[in-house]
Records
---
Amino acid sequence: MTERMLGALASSPIGFGAMVVSPGMYGDIDEERGQAALHAAIDAGARLIDTADGYGADGHNERAVGRAVRERRDEVVLATKFGFRIPDGAEPHRFPVNYAFGELAVNCAPEYVRGYAEQSLRNLGTDVIDLYYPHFPDPQVPFEETVGAVAELIGDGLVRHLGLSNVTAAQLRAAHAVHPVAAVQVQWSMWQPIDAALLAAARELGVGVVAWSPLGGGFLTGTVRQVADGDFRQQISRFSAENLAANNDRYAPVRAIAAELGVTPGQLALAWLLRQYEHVVPIPGSRTPAHIAENQAAADLVLDDAVLERIDKALAEFAPAGVGALLPH
Ligand SMILES: NC(=O)c1ccc[n+]([C@@H]2O[C@H](COP(=O)([O-])OP(=O)(O)OC[C@H]3O[C@@H](n4cnc5c(N)ncnc54)[C@H](OP(=O)(O)O)[C@@H]3O)[C@@H](O)[C@H]2O)c1
């Protein structure tokens, strides 16, 4: 399988978002199913495994990833994020978001960053993090200071590459002046466009883009007809019963193009993303080995210009009901 570069870091074209293997987001999940999903992802060719210290209770997600890669560390690129696991006595710095949670709280003060990384290294059972991101810029800490703390970890060999998650173009430029950035991680999919200024800055600076929720939290696979109790998507207005039904209707023209090509709508959504930028790596999450294999296979799909044009025309007419962006653009 071909490689995609995120700055100087080589990845598979499509990675794996591990958030799904912890209870609390897409409902409940047991250990066995989570481990099977992680192994299925690596077996299918996902090299970039994305986790965060804030996924699951008490580092659950990083520990699950650590268990899965114990014997397979050289097969993966481990990416994790910090900021949500605020130490006792440290102040939560709150900020509003549009999506699901209403408000989030981080603490990315530089004095805590080394401790975050050391805890993540223990959770992951490794001696180096390949790609390390502040999960969100801390509204109360100058971003350059947070980034400078990661740069020190890189200097000390605890981290290989700097990533930034949920940033603006201006924040990317400011961070890149402190230390070269390998990748920005942002919400980007057929129903959630990337901020054009951020993509332009990434291109100009040679920075990769890791696309989170590349399947629109499952919607773009065309298989979501309702969302169960205990699933965090119940708090996202695009997934309310009424909006979901309307959105499925409005998405029909894109599903029709997938059917014509003999691929699934989810594969079309991933292949479309891969055509948007030569340095984008989508990180779909799934707890279902057959879905994971299907998603990885999308890396081999080549969409020609005529098909791309038809998809873009259908997307221009696809106006989803409800709010979908985590942060306002
Ligand atoms: N940086 C950030 O702030 C941030 C925020 C959110 C997410 N992320 C990262 O991005 C990753 C992915 O995002 P996400 O989980 O929000 O959304 P996603 O990958 O767009 O969607 C995941 C959902 O799609 C379903 N799915 C996946 N493949 C499928 C297929 N082939 N057919 C049918 N259904 C399929 C999964 O269900 P099944 O399990 O049934 O397959 C799951 O419900 C996360 O795991 C996390 O690593 C980062």
---
Amino acid sequence: MKRRRKIALLGGAFILGTGILTPIVDSSVVSADPLDIRKPSISGFISHDELTRTLNQIEQTSNGNVVVDVAGYSNHGREIYKATIGSGDKVVLIQSEIHGNEKVGTKALLNIIKEIGKNNSPEMRQLREELTIVAMPMVNPDATELNRRGNEMTWEEVVEQFPQLEGVAPSWNYYTYINQYWDYKSNPGFDVNRDFNPDLDYVPQPKDFPNNSSAPGWFITPESQTIRDVYKDLQDQFGTVDVFVDLHHQGEYVIDGTDDPVTLSLSGVFVPHPSTSEGEKYREYADVYNVDLSKQLNVAAYDALQQMGNSPFGNISLYPQDLDLPGTALGSFALNGSGAVLFEITGQTQSYGQKKLGQLTKAVETGVYGILNSVATDEVYELDVEDYDDIPLTDR
Ligand SMILES: [Zn+2]
């Protein structure tokens, strides 16, 4: 803790001293086509300062229903928050913006925390009584401030933290490239969402670098460590984290066999089943892995969105299903027994900007409420697992 604090202060000084908060892409990236470097406004999204203010406000006006804590710090010393609501014995962990250019989820999550904390309707009271909801909006705040995917961290900083990695090749998810949007060359970082390991006590070993996307990550970033620690605390307290929801964005797609633009995609499958030959390497997790619950949770979200009627809210597709991504939070936590749901909202912020912001925010809220209500009422366990496979695929 003490060490983190020190890093936090140094980080803060560094940020101010070098003016790193100015949009780095506009000043240091040369592009052949000037149109390429025009950046859509992101002023409608939430900054880290605004997150801090909003969470404080929500806590203060929630009559004690919402408790906000600092769960940890980003590599540059920004607070990573968790907001806890409810006192039920079913646990739901929801996070947003592990990729800092995927911002709608944070807006939706703040609305959800506020509503469940404040509203005294029977439905909201039931959520508070039946569930313990832990919301972690904006878990990668350094990336948020740069409107980019990766965090802000050098391989040298990793080696400083884990001296056993001296002389080892950097992990495969270390970004050092430059393009029209980002300059990772002068300001490198990691894809935090490939830094998870289903062994939640894993300690980095030189033999596990640089690895690849179908191998587990290492918990080398403070952001993944913070999320992992929150997850483990919940396991200690409740046994299992029943549900894990991760809010992301994707490119722009249409629903398979149609011209309908996808509003968002869902998924509950991130690794091959541990009981199959492809999933052999995950055999030790076979007893707790619960893909049926993941599928039921996805169906709950899908059904809630379909109930919005014939509208963009109905244009929901299933994300590709043949994934093997144990280094994602979803992959690692699903192997630990959580029912897992991925939201992939249309459009990356750096190119899509804040188009349809209200509609997309509402769609995410609707899907998440579908999950929360179905878990609070136990209806999720009655849903037909096979309905999951009827969700139309994304056309790619
Ligand atoms: Zn993402």
---
Amino acid sequence: MMCHRDLLAVLALLLPLIALVVGNINAEWKPIPSTTDPGVVANAQFAVSAYDKKEGKHLVFVNVVEGNYTRGASGNIYYQLIVKAKDDRFGTSNNYNTVVRDYLDGRKDLIGFW
Ligand SMILES: *[C@@H]1O[C@H](CO)[C@@H](O)[C@H](O)[C@H]1NC(C)=O
């Protein structure tokens, strides 16, 4: 059975991990270096194509309007971007908000698109 001392030991191990995760979320956002930065554009293009695939849409990336990024504790970069995209079927363009996680190993995750 776990006694208080064990519980404290577990907490002592967990607290730095929790601090890391919270630190990740509260990390400072900085403006992207440029809307035409190849790394930024690659993430914006990924966001549009991942959204198309997921939602069966036909949006085509046009350009990055603005955005911010932050580096997570694990070294992954989070991008919060406003991306202009054109609907291939209706010919209309809109600005979309998107959040992408760019992993150190090159993988990317679409976190949000709206
Ligand atoms: C980026 O940060 C600026 C300053 O906080 C903010 O005004 C802007 O809305 C942010 N842009 C995005 C896409 O989150």
